[in-house]
C-alpha cells in the first residue's frame, strides 16, 4: 500500500510531467525519420500512410515497451542485489542471448520458430541456458545476493569469450552479422513481434507489481527482511525468474541494448526521491521507454539515409549521463 500513501506536490508534478513527455514522444516520434511525415501527408499519401502505421508505429511501441521493461528489470536487480550498478545484463542474460544468436548466425540456419527468426529464438534459448547456471547457485542453501551476482559476472565473461571465438572463426560476412546483432536495434519489427515481446513482459509486470512490497523489505537486508516475514530466498528467485523472462523476450526481439537498466531507475530516484518501489516501477517504465524511443528516433535521423544501431546511441547518451550522476552526487546512487 506504500504507493498509495499521500505524495508530495512536487512528486505528483514530476510524475505527471514524466507521463506527458512519454505521451508526447509516442505521438511525435513516429513522424520523425529520414523522411518527416506530417498529419497532412499521412492523409494524402498512401505509401507514407503505410510507412507510418505499419513501420514507424510498431517500432516506437517496441522501443517503449523494451526500454520500459529493461528499466524495471534494472530497478529490480538493483534492489535484490542492493547494488546500484546492477542491471539486467549483470545476470549474464544478455551475454547468453548474444552467444545463442552468434551460434545460429555461425550455423547459417534460417526460417522461423513460433514467429521468431531462428536467430531470435536462439537468443532466447541462450538467455534461458545462462540462467540455468545462475539458478544452480540461487537454489543453493548457502547462496546469497553476492554469490548470485558473482555467478552472473562469471557467466557473462565466459559467454563473451565464446562470442569472440565464434566471431573469429565465422568469416567476414558472418562476423559482420554477429557484430550488427550485438549492437541492438528496434528496426525491422512489426506488430507480431510486438505482441510476442509483450506477452512475457505482461507476465513480468504483473508479478513484479505483486512482489514490490517484498523488494522494499529486501533493501533492509536479508536478516531484517526475514524477521519481517519475507521468504528471502523465494522472493529473490521469483525476481530473478521474471527478470530473465522479460529480458530474454526483449533481447530476442531487439538484441542487447545497454545502459537503460542502470540509467532510468537512477534518473527516477533523482526526479522523485524517496518513493516506494511500486511507484518507482511505474516511473522507471515511463523513463526507460521514453529514453529508448528518443534514442531510436535519433538513430534513424542523424545520418540519413543510413541508420545508426540504437545500442550505440544508448551507450553514447547513457554513459556520460551516468558518470555525471556518479560524480555529481553519490547519494543519488544509494538504493
CATH fold type:
ABC transporter involved in vitamin B12 uptake, BtuC
Helix content: over 70%
* Strand and helix order: HHHHEEHHHHHHHHH
CATH class: Mainly Alpha
**CATH superfamily, called what?**
ABC transporter involved in vitamin B12 uptake, BtuC
> What share of the residues does DSSP label as strand, in percent?
under 5%
Radius of gyration: 20 Å
- Which structural category do the helix and sheet elements fall into? mainly alpha
Query: The biggest beta sheet, please?
Result: 2 strands, antiparallel
- Mean pLDDT reading: 84
Number of helices: 13
Ends apart, CA distance between termini: 19 Å
The second-level CATH architecture is Orthogonal Bundle
Number of domains: 1
Which regions have little confidence, pLDDT < 50, spanning 5+ residues?
331-335
* Strands, count: 2
Rough outline:
globular
Strand order of the largest sheet: 1-2
Amino acid at each position: 500500500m506504500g504507493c498509495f500513501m499521500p505524495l508530495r506536490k512536487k512528486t505528483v508534478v514530476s510524475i505527471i510531467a514524466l507521463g506527458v513527455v512519454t505521451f508526447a514522444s509516442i505521438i511525435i516520434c513516429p513522424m520523425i525519420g529520414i523522411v518527416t511525415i506530417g498529419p497532412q501527408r499521412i492523409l494524402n499519401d498512401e505509401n507514407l500512410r503505410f510507412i507510418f502505421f505499419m513501420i514507424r508505429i510498431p517500432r516506437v511501441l517496441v522501443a517503449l515497451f523494451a526500454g520500459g521493461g529493461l528499466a524495471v528489470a534494472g530497478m529490480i536487480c538493483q534492489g535484490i542485489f542492493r547494488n546500484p550498478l546492477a542491471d539486467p545484463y549483470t545476470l549474464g542474460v544478455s551475454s547468453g542471448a548474444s552467444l545463442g544468436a552468434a551460434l545460429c548466425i555461425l550455423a547459417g540456419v534460417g526460417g522461423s520458430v513460433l514467429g521468431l527468426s531462428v536467430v531470435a529464438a536462439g537468443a532466447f534459448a541462450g538467455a534461458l541456458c545462462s540462467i540455468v547456471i545462475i539458478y544452480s547457485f540461487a537454489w543453493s542453501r548457502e547462496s546469497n545476493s553476492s554469490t548470485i551476482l558473482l555467478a552472473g559476472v562469471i557467466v557473462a565473461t565466459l559467454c563473451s569469450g565464446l562470442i569472440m571465438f565464434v566471431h573469429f572463426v565465422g568469416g567476414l560476412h558472418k562476423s559482420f552479422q554477429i557484430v550488427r546483432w550485438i549492437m541492438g536495434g528496434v528496426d525491422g519489427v512489426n506488430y507480431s513481434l510486438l505482441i510476442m515481446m509483450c506477452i512475457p513482459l505482461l507476465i513480468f509486470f504483473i508479478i513484479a507489481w505483486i512482489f514490490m512490497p517484498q523488494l522494499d523489505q529486501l533493501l533492509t537486508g536479508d536478516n531484517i527482511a526475514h524477521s519481517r516475514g519475507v521468504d528471502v530466498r523465494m522472493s529473490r528467485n521469483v525476481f530473478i525468474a521474471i527478470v530473465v523472462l522479460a529480458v530474454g523476450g526483449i533481447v530476442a526481439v531487439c538484441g542487447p541494448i545497454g545502459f537503460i537498466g542502470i540509467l532510468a531507475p537512477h534518473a527516477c530516484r533523482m526526479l522523485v526521491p524517496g518513493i516506494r518501489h511500486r511507484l518507482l516501477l511505474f516511473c522507471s517504465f515511463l523513463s526507460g521507454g521514453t529514453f529508448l524511443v528518443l534514442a531510436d528516433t535519433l538513430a534513424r535521423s542523424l545520418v540519413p539515409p543510413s541508420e545508426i544501431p540504437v545500442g550505440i546511441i544508448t551507450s553514447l547518451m547513457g554513459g556520460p549521463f551516468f558518470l555525471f550522476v556518479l560524480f555529481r552526487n553519490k547519494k543519488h546512487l544509494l538504493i
